[in-house]
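FIELD: query
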Amino acid sequence: GPASSLYGADAIGGVIQVFTRRPGPGVSGRLSGGLGSDDTRTVAGGISATLGAVALSLQAGHRQSDGFNATTDPSSFIWNPDRDGYDSDDVGASAAVTFAPGHEASARYLRNRLDNQFDGGPGFDDRTRTTLELWQLESRNRFADNWASQLTLGEASDDSVSSTAFGDYPFRTRERQYGWQNEFALPHGTATLAVERREERIDEEAGFAVTSRDTNAIVGVLQFARSDHTLQANLRHDRSTQYGGQTTGAIAWGYRLAPSWRVTASYGTAFKAPSFNDLYYPGFSNPGLAPETARNVEGSVHWSGQLGTWRTGARAVAWYNKVDELIVFQCDDAFNCAPRNVARATLQGVTLAGDATWRGTSIRGSVDLQQPEDDVTGHLLPRRAQRHGALVVAQAVGPAQLVVELIASSHRYDDAENTRRLGGYAIVNVAVE
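FIELD: result
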């Protein structure tokens, strides 16, 4: 499919908190580069400076690969015996000014352009060119010892054109966000109150049924900590011009049983509206999609301590999620691809994880055991593995660090009927830093 569908490009929700780390004092720079298989090249660099009350940062990068043939079956009607690579350029900048203790204003900007090739038929170099652009203005103010305020304004745009043998397919979305968040200190916790507005737009000349959507939201969060207990409660109400009003919430509790042991439990509800890419992206969309709703339960046990000379930790997290109208993306045998709703789905499982550190050696590992299932058919949900694991070993050697990573997954199915089996796989990554 086109790159936008692969990267979930819709004018990126949340107007990403980009480059938020304030530079250290003075001037510093960084430069990195890499080479890989399929003629993959990457280079990135940046410079940052803090001059009194002003902090500045500028960074840029380029990544390119000649790739490999995206279609492996010569009998497929989209077969094209060429290499399908990509070319990506990005630039980002930020500036922040501290006017007085507890009062800061900042601005951030990010732009990325991706030229991504794919196979859509013989004799034509199909590609999607996508430009993502984001900017954000922010004001952080501490008006009193117990009152901190954050005011934000930002916009993100996703401008893409898929060039195929059948013509060009342009698609542009834009999202503007306004937010005001206030945090108040309480005797044994904090209270947070926030209001948000999100304005989403598509090019009106495209002729879609809906070309704009506005959503207003109010969010409240209470957090309390007393002795070995912690408690958090969230409540959120969204009102959309397309889907009306929705109220969601969650409550979570944590308890420290002993210095090395703690447990947590939570319950929450969720709502997810289809993105404009899901609804209207040319050739890969479904205007009839319904929003997702979910109910989620989670519990966990955590342990940390010493095993001999090793500083170690372990955790087990279990979850049980019921989702109505789950949105999944799939293709049929004729390569007609689009998102669709799964009427009722259950996602349940457990994550087991641990880590250990001794001097310059660190080991991290995790495994997910899950059952992501369509409740109506009993089949596994498309492209969701039942078992997934990772193991990372890092060893410091003087100023350098050697890292070896193993990622493994069991088989999945490419379709809702579980007839097209995708084999399991393992990936080994080796890096020197």
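FIELD: remark
Confidence is low (pLDDT under 50) at residues 1-19.
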